[in-house]
Structures are given as C-alpha cells and as structure tokens.
C-alpha cells in the first residue's frame, strides 16, 4: 500500500493539499477499478516499456512550472557488455585450444583468462543453431527445424521466427543496451530478403540497431552478397585490393564499439559477431594458406590420432575417453589415389588457413576491446562452431560446394587444371568428408548428424574478468545453445520478457550457465535435451544418450527410407565421453525409456513430421502460400532480388520477353541475370549483339552469341523460349533442353543445354546489371556491366499447369 500511495502522490500531484489518507483511499479506488493504469508489469518483463509518467509541475505559465524530461531506459547498474562470437562449421578437434592442429591464439588467450566448456551442444545445422542461440528456445520451437532455405509448411519447419519468441537483442535493446549484428544472419526467409520486406525478421527488426553482413546461409568471402541494415551495399574494396569479408566485418565491429563507447560511455552494448567462416566456400588469403603447406601430409587417419593425444594431454577430454573408429562410409587415407590425396591436402591447407585467419581477426577485435578499456566488463562467448565440421564436400571434396548441395559433385574431375585456384576468388571449395571427420575428433560423424556428438558438440570459451574469478579452468556441465540467452539475462539482471510489442511470449527453454562460472564441481542443471536434424535424432537424459542416425550429409537427396527401420543406439555419457560404446543390447529398457522421452519432446517442441529430404526442399516454390506463381513482370533497369524471390523458371519450359530501347549509338550491358561466378544465367548485349550464357556451376558453360547486330535507335522485343529435353519435378538437376532466341519475331538462333538446375548459389536475380561476381567471364573486366539502353519491361513465364508445381 505504501508503494501505491507513492505512485498516486506522484501521479496526482495536483492533490498535494489533500491528506495522505485521502490519497491512499483514492489510490485504492483507482487500483481496484482502473487496473490498467497502475498495475504495470515488473520493469523489463513487458517490452517496450510505456512512456514514463510526468513527475514535474505544470502551472498556467512557465513561472512556477517544473520540467521533467522523459528519461531513457537504462540497463541495470553494472550490467556487462556482451559479445557473442559464433563460428560456422568448425569441429570439436580443430583449434589448438582444444587439441587441434590449427593455432588459435585469440581463443587460447580468452581460455587462459576465462573458462573452457567441453560439453556444450548445438543443433547440428546453421540457421537452426542461430535461432536457438538468439531466442533461448529449441530450434523447432521457433519454426527453424532446418535451414530457412528448406522450410516447409509445418510449425516446426516454417523458417519463420514467430513473434512469440523474441530474441535476446530485443530484450537487451528495450532494457538500455546498444545492439549490433555483424556477419552471417541466416534467419530471414529468402522471400523476405527483398526491397518489399517485410523487414521484421531482418536483424534490425529483431532487436539489432545495426546490421552489416549477409542474410543467407553462406557467402563468397571475396564477393559477398552484402547488406547494411536492409540496404544492399558493395564491399569497400576489391579482392585485388586485399578485400576479405572477415576482415571487413571485424573493421566494422571495432568501429561500432568505438562509436558506441564514445557516445555513451556508461551504456552497455550487445554485439553479435558471426563471420561466414568456416562455412564453405573456404577462402583464405594466399599468405595464410602458405603457412600450412605440408602440415597435413600424414592424412586424416593419422592426424586424428595426433589430435586425440593432444586433447588428452590438454585435459580437454578425460583420460578415460576412447577415440571412436572411422565409419566404413568414410574412406581410409591410404585408400585414396595420389591425385585424390593431393587435392585433399590443398583443400585442408586452405581450410586450416581459413580458421587461423578468422581467429587472427577475432584477436584484433579482442585487442580493440582492451585498448578502449571495455574488455574487463565484457561477457564474451566464443562459440567454436554452430555445428560440427561439414561433410557436405563429399568423399573427394568439391571445387564448387553450391553444386554439391544441389546434388551435383564431379569430385576430382572438378579440380582438373584448377588445383592452384583453391582458396582464390575463382574457387568455391569444400574439404572431403575425411577431413571433416578428423576435425570432429574424438567424436563420430559430422555436421547434420544430430544423433552423434560430431554433429552437435562444439567447444565454447566464456571470458568475463569482472565476473569469473577462477580462470583457466575446464567446465564439463552438459549445456546447449538455448542456455546462452538465460545466462545473459541472468548476468545482466534483466527479467525474461513476458510480452513483446503486446504479444505474450513463449517461455524461454534454456537454463542459465552462470552457476558454472565459479564452481567447477557444480551439479548439472540441464538434465534433458533432445536433438533432431533431417531425421537424425537423439535424446539426452541424466547422462544417457539414445541415438538414431538416419542419413549421411553428402547424399543430398531424400533417402525415402522408413524412419522406423533406423537402428537406435544407447550410450552412457557419464562413463563414455566420446559416445564410443553402444549399450543398447545390454539396456533395452533404458533405450525404450529414452525413445519414449524423445517422442514426448518431439510432440512438445514441434519436431514432427520427420523429413529427410534435402536438395528437394531447396525449391522455393514449396514455400509459396496459395497458388504457385507462373508469371513475373518487371519494369526498369534497376531490380535486385534474391534468386528465390525472383522468377523461378529454370529448368522448366519457359519464355522470357524483354522490351528494350537501344539508342542510335547502340548499347551494351546485362539485361537480366541470376547467380554469379559459381553458376547462373545471363542475358546481355555486347559488341552490339545479343548474348546469353548458362553457367553450370563453373563446370560447363553454354554460350550463345547472335550472328547479327541488334537494330539501334528504336524499341525492340527480345524473346527466348526453353524446351526441356525432359523434366522430372523431383530432380534438382535436369538433362537440359533447347533455348531459342528471336528479336522482333525473327529467329536469331538456338542453344543446346546439356544440364540445368533451378538454384545457382546466393547471388541475386538482377535486371540492368550483374553487380557482385560475373556470371560470364566475357564481361568480367567490365564491373557491374550496367545496361546502357532502356529496359521498358521484361516478362518471365513458366509454361506448365499449376498442378505440375503442387
């Protein structure tokens, strides 16, 4: 009642002459009959907060009046800065800090002055891990049971973060923090990465005041598809001038921290730093690649044993740990041909260089925090991978990992005459599965395989000098990405939001790690956690882990194998750190118990229906609500959309009709294109003639050039039509067809394609230019190669019935 009286005394300042008893009676009346006005939620639990009440004094004139300027929301006293560093596709055994072959001095430094965690877990795949990390909830709970590019129409798989599951950035922003995200996002539906948005699922719509990075699952490190907030931008320099994406975002992060601390020294900040590294394509500057020449010549079987011994020496795994054997699906190093070994070594040297270069850039960021006196009170989470190392490069690796994901990987043949290009801007390389497996030492399997620890167990280091007294120690409590958000809120003294923008929130499903900071022997508070990815599934409960592996990552088409035929395994992780000893036969009842627990968790968190399709789900048409679109019309010379948000017509039967005007002196440039150097198509004018090129992932190029020049000084109609040789809707790569070209109704020639596909990487669909990397090498020296005539209208139309696309 005393609190209520004080509220009423402030709010009803005009009643100061009344007795305090009268005010309290009035307060009781208002409390009982007007609860909305005074019964506010606890500070910070419902955000954004309402405007504060006026506590000054207003008289008829300024004379005698007292102002009360609205005060901004401030964070709790002593709340630390927060920096999340999230790497991509890094295995447990890659970094020197955790026994690996790649020196990581920045990670070493943070670990020696912080804490190492060796039983920390992810979801086994990119955007699901990021959604779980940023919301504090399981990935299926937030509609991200798989990467956004593969979303379907089921609640756990929409690829759409629901408004009932706000991010930690929203909670911190509305409680006084400055916020920013740099690097990889991968949590905006592809169809929303466009000028029309909506922008509420971009970083700036989910609590981040600033965003600089890329929005899809990967990007080229020399030619990134780059955004500042919601606007496409170009990198500040070219690869020839020394550009690399990781360096760029590090520079941007350092500048942002310096600006924030200069503008408001007492305001804490939250920074999400997520480089594209080490997701493919693996790109490292040449000088970094040279550092690793010859260091992996002993091959992945021997390197794995070396890592394991080093891990035991460093005590990042227990002395009782057993090195798991190589699965029969992964080839032995000695069984590889000399040519395959040579390619594999160059790929691994490049991959290791990518890791070392990334850690160097993180070291620059950490040094900058020390230099501006921000390091001591910055809570740093250095999470070494959003999943285990990736086996998506296949048995021999790949020169173009985009094509491998789409289901086409020629293996060694793709490296013919190009081995020296590995790591250069002209490459899109990925290591073979054997190196991914080795970098996940000592565990079984890799990224995507959520049933086994090679896919889900990633190292983590936490550094916070002001809050962690016992530094340089190891923590072995079982935890998961969903536990980071509650840890941040716990440390900052900020309550879990109950409502955001008026929308009631789904409770956070994570558990704070703070209890581990200064007590290495603290009993685990996370006693249960499910895992599922692409049908690979597991259930952890009180030290036991039941696992069912359904597929392998380098087979990108659905297995069409019944899930009930999967073999379940059982492990006692309290005694078996590496998941090496299957106890299913000895403890069938325990296995049944965990299978039942998994089923309960799956129903609770929207895991069902299980779905093992991969490349088939990359088709953006399955994410269209309502009738499938068959016709797209665009106007003008300046259109840019993600390929998935543009016309989806290759390799279906289709027509393209462009109405353009050429000035008297003629014109040249790109009329329309999609993709880039890694694959795509482009329609352009060069030397006065109509040109077309279909770039099949850089492996094959189909080129058309008209024999006659285009008429100038008038409006003309250019059209092309495509008749496929055959088309099976379930196939990702078709067997091509015939393209026919005409100008003004006059046949100009045709082009035979032997292969075609409907996805060409992450570079956009554009009209009027080719602005990132060139689809065609014939205009690689012409920059964006902007069209110098006028594009009045261009129409893309698919010539199949709606029923075909259902």
Task: Tell me the β content.
Answer: 15-25%
Percent helix range:
10-25%
Q: What does the main sheet amount to?
A: 10 strands, mixed
Number of strands: 33
Provide a count of the helices. Answer: 16
Mean pLDDT comes to 91
Quaternary structure state of the chains depicted: single chain
Named CATH architecture of the largest domain = 3-Layer(aba) Sandwich
CATH class of the largest domain: Alpha Beta
CATH homologous superfamily assignment of the largest domain: Alkaline Phosphatase, subunit A
Alpha carbon gap, first and last residue? 63 Å
Per CATH, what is the topology of the largest domain?
Answer: Alkaline Phosphatase, subunit A
> Low-confidence stretches at least 5 residues in length (pLDDT < 50)?
1-42, 802-806
Brief description of this entry?
This protein is α+β, with helices and mostly antiparallel strands. It starts with a helix and ends with a helix.
Account of the protein in words:
The protein is of the alpha+beta class and 806 residues long. The protein folds into 3 domains: 1-71, no CATH class; 81-602, Alkaline Phosphatase, subunit A; 627-805, Jelly Rolls. It contains 16 helices and 33 strands. Strands 8-7-6-5-9-2-10-11-3-12 form a 10-stranded mixed sheet. Strands 20-33-22-27-29-30 form a 6-stranded antiparallel sheet, with no helix packed on it. The radius of gyration is 29 Å and the shape is globular. The termini are far apart.
